[in-house]
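Appendix B, example 12.
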Amino acid sequence: MTTNILVIGRDHAILEVIERLINAHENWRATITGTEEEAIGLFKGAKYPIVLVSAGFSAQEEEIIRQKLTTVDPEVVVSRHYGGGSGLLENEILGILKK
Protein backbone atom coordinates (compact mmCIF):
# COMPACT_ATOMS: atom_id res chain seq x y z
CA MET A 1 0.00 0.00 0.00
CA THR A 2 1.34 3.41 -0.98
CA THR A 3 1.40 6.25 1.53
CA ASN A 4 0.79 9.63 -0.12
CA ILE A 5 2.66 12.50 1.49
CA LEU A 6 1.88 16.12 0.71
CA VAL A 7 4.79 18.53 1.11
CA ILE A 8 4.24 22.28 1.15
CA GLY A 9 7.04 24.83 1.08
CA ARG A 10 8.15 28.00 -0.62
CA ASP A 11 11.66 26.94 -1.63
CA HIS A 12 11.22 24.93 -4.83
CA ALA A 13 14.76 23.52 -4.76
CA ILE A 14 14.20 22.10 -1.27
CA LEU A 15 10.81 20.72 -2.31
CA GLU A 16 12.40 18.89 -5.22
CA VAL A 17 14.97 17.26 -2.92
CA ILE A 18 12.27 16.22 -0.43
CA GLU A 19 10.17 14.82 -3.27
CA ARG A 20 13.10 12.79 -4.59
CA LEU A 21 13.95 11.42 -1.13
CA ILE A 22 10.37 10.44 -0.36
CA ASN A 23 9.82 8.86 -3.77
CA ALA A 24 12.97 6.78 -3.32
CA HIS A 25 10.94 4.66 -0.89
CA GLU A 26 8.93 1.98 -2.60
CA ASN A 27 5.71 2.59 -0.69
CA TRP A 28 5.83 6.39 -0.36
CA ARG A 29 4.67 8.94 -2.92
CA ALA A 30 5.29 12.68 -2.54
CA THR A 31 3.27 15.52 -3.99
CA ILE A 32 4.86 18.96 -3.64
CA THR A 33 3.32 22.41 -3.73
CA GLY A 34 4.37 25.95 -2.94
CA THR A 35 1.08 27.50 -1.87
CA GLU A 36 -1.45 26.99 0.87
CA GLU A 37 -4.32 27.24 -1.63
CA GLU A 38 -2.92 24.53 -3.90
CA ALA A 39 -2.14 22.31 -0.91
CA ILE A 40 -5.75 22.51 0.27
CA GLY A 41 -7.03 21.76 -3.24
CA LEU A 42 -4.72 18.75 -3.58
CA PHE A 43 -5.68 17.57 -0.12
CA LYS A 44 -9.38 17.65 -0.95
CA GLY A 45 -8.74 15.60 -4.10
CA ALA A 46 -6.72 12.73 -2.65
CA LYS A 47 -5.93 10.95 0.61
CA TYR A 48 -2.79 12.34 2.29
CA PRO A 49 -2.32 10.93 5.80
CA ILE A 50 0.86 13.02 6.19
CA VAL A 51 1.46 16.67 5.32
CA LEU A 52 4.95 18.08 5.80
CA VAL A 53 5.39 21.84 6.06
CA SER A 54 8.81 22.86 4.81
CA ALA A 55 10.80 26.07 4.43
CA GLY A 56 9.07 29.39 4.00
CA PHE A 57 5.98 29.01 6.17
CA SER A 58 5.78 30.60 9.61
CA ALA A 59 4.48 28.75 12.65
CA GLN A 60 1.28 30.79 12.39
CA GLU A 61 0.80 29.85 8.73
CA GLU A 62 1.49 26.22 9.58
CA GLU A 63 -1.22 26.31 12.25
CA ILE A 64 -3.73 27.80 9.79
CA ILE A 65 -2.90 25.03 7.30
CA ARG A 66 -3.29 22.42 10.07
CA GLN A 67 -6.70 23.78 11.03
CA LYS A 68 -7.96 23.80 7.45
CA LEU A 69 -6.70 20.30 6.68
CA THR A 70 -7.99 18.71 9.89
CA THR A 71 -11.41 20.12 9.03
CA VAL A 72 -11.29 17.99 5.87
CA ASP A 73 -9.62 14.96 7.51
CA PRO A 74 -9.26 14.91 11.32
CA GLU A 75 -6.81 12.00 11.04
CA VAL A 76 -4.16 13.91 9.06
CA VAL A 77 -0.77 14.48 10.66
CA VAL A 78 0.66 17.89 9.81
CA SER A 79 4.32 18.11 10.77
CA ARG A 80 7.06 20.70 10.34
CA HIS A 81 10.06 19.43 8.38
CA TYR A 82 13.16 21.39 9.29
CA GLY A 83 15.56 19.66 6.93
CA GLY A 84 18.71 17.88 7.95
CA GLY A 85 19.19 15.21 5.34
CA SER A 86 17.60 12.03 4.11
CA GLY A 87 18.01 10.08 7.35
CA LEU A 88 16.14 12.68 9.38
CA LEU A 89 13.34 12.90 6.82
CA GLU A 90 12.99 9.13 6.72
CA ASN A 91 12.91 8.91 10.53
CA GLU A 92 10.31 11.71 10.73
CA ILE A 93 8.00 9.87 8.35
CA LEU A 94 8.58 6.47 9.95
CA GLY A 95 7.82 7.98 13.37
CA ILE A 96 4.54 9.39 12.09
CA LEU A 97 3.58 6.10 10.46
CA LYS A 98 4.24 4.15 13.66
CA LYS A 99 1.79 6.30 15.67
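The radius of gyration is 12 Å. Strands lie at 3-8, 28-33, 50-53, 77-80.
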